[in-house]
């Protein structure tokens, strides 16, 4: 019996090659997207699950509340905290601290930058990474030992055995010898702990430079006992913390005139990867956002759903030619259950063929999908029984969803009606038309979303930043006490170079702190700059003056603020001459100038209060150079040569600020691609579904069209008649999608402090585009029906 079902199914597929190909191809596209999403979701859910003790590993987190400040959740700690918790709380079996540190490696006559991860010597007893060589349990007990990943070992030692070899490593100004004690396999791609080099935490914290309790800069993990209650452990952690910080917090509250409350917490290791607030930062990698998974999964489900809808419409349209077959089957004794099995078998065969094509499509475009999603998905680490079982379940669900409705409808036809030819299948077919409206609503929604994302991205890239970023280059300086020599050397060697317009210096990174202004506490970005910084950036002053060598007191007693600071301070009139007090040093300085606000971060970040002081060279971490565009290549070569002469044992790295700014919007650019590609897929599959519905309508109205032509109806009139009813479906979809898209776009734009306005032309263009595509889809069948010979349509009457 099963053999007979399969033979009939294959025969019908082969007999209707064109329609079968459309069904299989449309379904395969939907399945391919779902296969990719299975890989994506499995990768997201598999992070850090390869550690044997994963259920008992927790990260120490903090909840900080300060009067007048927003609540702040911190995933970073100070080194003594984990040490004290492990010593004083019995349920804590081990502690492991992680800190990233940029170092320089000398290899032959070259120097290479390396981001080392400094960890406690019991790292491998808590976390599991595959050993290749050496003894992991004792690999980091010596302060001058190092563990390499397999890739790093090959990078530095080639095919030679690196165990016992010496590496010259520099943290600040002097190279020191480190011994390679072990080699491990490269961390899995689904690990939040990613490293190429491990160094002892004792080396990072030598001299006790990080021995405070409040705030922090490192990740601290605790391994709890099997039966430990995290809530009880957290309560004990709070007691230990309060005991060690009471005096320090009390002093800070008195000095800063505010209440400070810090609450300890524990975060499970498995929660880190997709946590929005307490994610993989400060030495951890591969942070993700759960919203991405939900959106991508939703798109995949909807694509598969509309592919199944198309399958249904095409199956019903195709089955009109099989109505007499159904009637004859019933006459010779076939019951409804057998017909249902027959149609479900055909659905399964089509779905199986589609699944095979989908697998080929999915793995062919996997590199592109990895680039689009920012992943490195591969079967090599994701394949297991659960993955294959999920794919097989996907196949069964797809076959059932695509086949059950046609099977129930077609098997329920009355024998006499289908043999006599009087059954007009499904009447006006409201259900199928409703499905078409649903499909096009989703397609139009995504087109509008893609347009909106493009408009916002264009706005972000073209908005005036308040400074001139063109041909502005930043050179990061090493973590060294000799930076002043490099800066002075650059100004001396390149000061007269015609390709260099300005040279300036500034501290590296961001420095957040607080000041008092007329009794009001203000959180600021604090910046150390030199005399040339504002000129190089072309940042205008709204009042006051720049730092100047003509005023020796500027270096000790003067600051420059931005316009946002003035507004936050509530100053009326001129800000020049106002005094502010640093909350940390208690030093008072006088405002000598106010610069116009400029976007020192991306446009996804609102401009905050800034304070600039004339810093000593030791505080500078970057050189900013304004280039003459016409001489850029030659100047870059001179810059590299100059740097290597001034700092031969430090890696050279520079960035064009325009490119750095553009990289800030990589996520938006990625979502623009995702929305655009999704819209194209939705439109393609929706047009296939519309094609099926048009074919169904033409099949049902063959004789009506023939009679109209006999009575003198023109071909254009018939084309218009067929097209009109489906055009209305697209217009209804447009009217539904427009308010939904407006609401979704409005909510998305609310996350940007600086955003474009929603232009109504976005909706008009999307509507015209989708109607044009729908007409193109309808047109072929409509023209074919209008030009058909009416004699063929009426000859059986």
Give an account of the 3D structure.
- This protein has 797 residues and is of the alpha+beta class.
- It has four domains: 180 residues, no CATH class; 218 residues, no CATH class; 166 residues, no CATH class; 172 residues, no CATH class.
- It contains 26 helices and 22 strands.
- It has a six-stranded mixed beta barrel with strand order 3-4-9-6-8-7.
- Strand 3 and strand 4 form a beta hairpin.
- The longest helix has 35 residues.
- The mean pLDDT is 82.
Outline of the structure:
The chain has 797 residues and is α+β, with helices and mostly antiparallel strands. A 6-stranded mixed barrel has the order 3-4-9-6-8-7.
In helices, the fraction of residues equals 40-55%
Oligomeric status: single chain
By secondary-structure content and strand pairing, the structural class works out as: alpha+beta
Globular, elongated, flat, extended or rod-shaped: what is the shape?
globular
Core attributes:
797 residues; alpha+beta; 4 domains; six-stranded mixed beta barrel; six-stranded mixed barrel; 18% strand
Topology:
Layout: H1 2-15, H2 17-45, E1 57-66, E2 72-74, H3 79-88, E3 92-107, E4 110-119, H4 123-126, E5 131-134, E6 145-149, H5 150-157, E7 166-170, E8 175-184, E9 197-200, H6 201-204, E10 219-224, H7 230-256, E11 260-268, H8 290-319, H9 323-331, H10 336-364, H11 366-373, H12 379-382, H13 385-411, H14 415-420, H15 430-462, E12 472-476, H16 483-494, E13 500-506, E14 512-517, E15 520-529, H17 533-537, E16 541-544, H18 554-557, E17 558-562, H19 563-569, E18 579-582, E19 588-595, E20 610-614, E21 622-627, H20 632-646, E22 654-656, H21 657-663, H22 666-700, H23 702-710, H24 715-749, H25 761-787, H26 790-794
Parallel strand pairs: 4-9, 6-8, 15-20, 17-19
Antiparallel strand pairs: 1-2, 1-10, 1-11, 3-4, 3-7, 3-10, 5-8, 6-9, 7-8, 12-21, 12-22, 13-21, 14-15, 14-18, 16-19, 17-20, 18-19
Helix pairs in contact: 1-10, 2-8, 2-10, 2-13, 2-22, 3-7, 8-13, 8-15, 8-22, 10-13, 15-22, 15-24, 15-25, 16-20, 22-23, 22-25, 24-25
